[in-house]
Every structure is written in structure tokens, then in C-alpha cells.
Amino acid sequence: MLALVALWTYASPAQSQQVSLTPIIASDHASDPPLSGAMRRIAQLEQTVFELQQRQPAGLIEDDDTICFDAPVTEHPSHYPIYDTGWTLRPYDSEKTPFELTIGLHNQFRYTGFSRDNDTSIDAAGNVRTIPNRNDFNVNRGRLVFSGYALDKDLGFYANIDYSTVASSSIQPLLTWISFRHSDTFTLYMGLGKVPGTWEWQQTSRYTLGADRTLATTFFRPSISAGMWGIGKLGDSLSYTVFVGNGLNTLTLRSADLDTNFVYSGLAWWEPLGDFGVGFSDQEYHQDLAIRIGHGLTQTRNDSTSSDQSGAEQTVVRLSDGTRLIEPNALAPGVTVNAFDVWLYTVHLGLKKQGYSLSSEVFMRWLRNIEGTGGAELDSLFDNGFYVQGGAFVIPKKLELFARGSAVTGNFGTGSEVAAGLNWHLFEKRSARLTLDVTDVRDSPAEQSRTGYVAGETGTLVRMQLWTFF
To answer: What is the DSSP letter of 17?
Structure first.
């Protein structure tokens, strides 16, 4: 009744408003609507009064307005849109509706130019390799990323759909996982993830100091595999990642292509003076010195197939001149490697202060228990390498100059690079970065389509790119 009285007040001539009401027909027969129906009508009337109260002071009610009492009662939405490093659908109450979704778009557009010193090179197996010049534009990395949580704030999800004009697969799932957060000490992940291995590899390619990861990292690093891993912190300054998965590089492989050996990898680091931050540049402009010290260990066994042939997951391992380890005749005439152990140990150090940064990583790799076709047993191999890189912001948080060098040395020679360039953070943030670098490459031992290195090449590599992510 209060709702009807209020409605009559707002519809009175004193307010110069006319409200048309759908009549409620009284009945004293057994066909009267049930109590629940009456309550619904009361709720509709109260909603109508509320709407009139909101509209009348602002002069939004017209003389010929008609009020409909059959409209459903308005329900408050459970989520609202917001921008938070991506387009985010966030719940008003995460306890009542525990679901959040963020959609992000990452894009790396690059110009690559390469001027070769020699047309060809010869690998350890005696093969002649053609070295191409380059002058082209590409989308080296593009990612459509879905992330958030569901059912509970500690149950996370992540799906990274990769698109590229240089990779063998133009579109493919790259990194995908479900995570269970126990505490800051431990979060469990299951899906497709990075085999940690090295610091520069563990960091996203969006945060490299130059246009891409160094030649040494490209040579030594593991890749992506399905598996399980844990990430956490022990106290305020010690962090770790541990991983067990199918192999060093099994992203595109199916179960029939895999051997039965897992890869085991871990990376731990210490930040004794406070948060070091992401990446290698001091874009955050630390007022006080920040230090990161860490190391990593990776081990796996690669076995031959049932037909005594090299396995599909063995193709990423190269000798120090860039020859694939499983290339026929690479280690001995008439012999093709088909089984071996890989041990990789790395140590890294990083410093940041007031726009200046210095970082370095040392790599040591042992190839042991090497076997070849026909039961051949071959000598173990040891390769080592490093990179050193430094940057300085000449305009704080915006314009950075950098230089870096890296090298790989082993039984089959040495390859190296020296580079210099600049980073321009367009909006004083990492989310839009223009990079230009020029690299002198000597006898590259590494090859990877996204970085731009080709095994055996010597010459000048020029890369200019725009990284955006939002």
C-alpha cells in the first residue's frame, strides 16, 4: 500500500505528471492470484516508484509517460569492465561470483636487415650452408592472451595463442596452464610452460634489453614443454621455479614423437636489497641499488627411437659451429648421433640503479653418454658461453642506450656477437617500446626464426621493432 500511495503522490496534478496504471482487479472468488503473485506485483510497484524518484527531480518524466508494472525487477550486474594491463571483466564480489577474465594483445612488429660477409659456410658434417641476406618486415611474435581465475581466486588459468609470420606454425597455442595457488611459498602449474633453464629465457621476450634474446641464450636455452612446475618465494628475497616435463623442446610434438625421459629443470635467485623488478632495463628507476643473483640447472636424457634413429625432440641441440648434433657425420664419419644426456648449468647477476643496469649470465653445457647408429659410443662434449649487457637511460623512463656482447665456445669453434642500440619507451612505460639495434655477428652457432640468427652466418644484423602489449 505504501508503494501505491507514493505512486499516487508522484502522479498527482501538483507534479503536472500523468501516469497510466494497469488496474489491479479485485476479486472475492477462489480464482484470486496466490500470495506469491501479489508479492511480485508489490515488488514491481516499488521498483516503479524508485525509478520515478530518480527521474522526476531531473525533469525526465514527460506528461504522456506510461508506467509499465509488468517489467521485471532490475538485478544488479555481477561484473564490471575495467582496464588492468588488458581488458578485464572483474566481479563486484569475488566471493559471490569468483570469476575474472583479462584479455590482452601483444604484438612485436620488426624490420630485419642482414648483410652477409660470405655467401656460404661449411658445418662440422661437411655440408655447405647458404647464408642469405635479409631485408623484410615481419610480425615475429603476436599473442592473444586470456588469463584470470575461476571457481576460486586461487584457481588461475592462462592461455597464450601465438601468431607469427616467421614461425613454422602461423597460429598455435604457445603457453597454456591451470594454476593452484597454495600461498606465496608455492603455486602449482600444469600445462604448457617454459623449461626454466636460464634467466634471459625465463624472462618474457617483451623485456629483453635489445630487440631479442642474445646469441648465447638462443644457443643454450631449453624451450617449451608440457609438464608440471612450481613457482614460489622463500621469505622476502629468495624465489624459485622448478619444472618437470616431457623434454627440452616438445611444444609441437605428439606422444608418438617423445621418448620416455622427462626433463628436470630449476632456477633460483636472490634479491637481497629489495625487489629487482622484471627484465633487464631499469625502467622503474630504482633510487637504491637492486641486485639479483641466481643460478639454474637442467638435465634430461634423449634416447633413440625404436628403429635406432634420432628422436624428434633432439633437433634443437647444436654444436658450437651451429651444426645440429644429430646431423649425419657431425661427430664421426658414417655415424649419426641418436642418444645423449644434456646437463646445463647457468649463473647470473643483475644490477639496477637510477636508470642504469648491468646484467650477465654464464652458461656451461655437458653432452654426455653420446651414442650413435650401430651402437657407436662417442666422446663427451663441453660448451660454454656468456653474455654481458648494460643500459643507461639518458631520458629517465623514456630513452635508453644499451650495448651488449655474447659468445659461445666449444669443441667446434667459437661464435660471437657485439651489439649497440636504443630503447624508446613511448609513454614512459614498458607497454610500448621502440627498439633499434645493430649487431656484428661472427660465425653464429645459434639459429632461431624469431631472434633472426642463422647458423654459420657472419655479417651485420640490423633490427628495428615496436613491441606493444595492452
So the answer is: -
> Cell match 633432439: residue?
314
Q: Looking at the structure, do residues 33 and 98 belong to the same domain, yes or no?
A: no
Strands 376-378, 381-395: pairing kind: unpaired
- Does 22 fall in a domain? yes
Q: For residue 323, which amino acid is it? A: T
Q: What is the mean pLDDT of residues 98-110?
A: 96
pLDDT tens string 258-279:
889 999 999 999 999 999 999 9
Do the bridges between strand 263-270 and strand 290-302 make them parallel or antiparallel, or are there none, so unpaired? antiparallel
The residue type found at 153 is K
pLDDT of amino acid 309? 59
Considering the domain architecture, whether residues 12 and 106 belong to the same structural domain is answered as: no
CA distances from 433 to 3, 237, 276, 427 (A): 60, 29, 20, 8
45 and 83 share one domain: no
Q: What 3-state class would DSSP assign to 412?
A: coil
Instruction: Kindly state whether residue 69 falls inside one of the protein's structural domains.
Output: no
Short-list 339, 429, 439, CA closest to 387: 439
Count of Cβ atoms closer than 10 Å to residue 416 Cβ = 18
Q: In the chain, how many domains are there?
A: 2
Beta bridge partners of 464: 111, 436
Sign of CA dihedral 323, 368, 225, 416: negative
Domain hosting 37: range is 2-55
* CATH number for position 130: 2.40.160.10
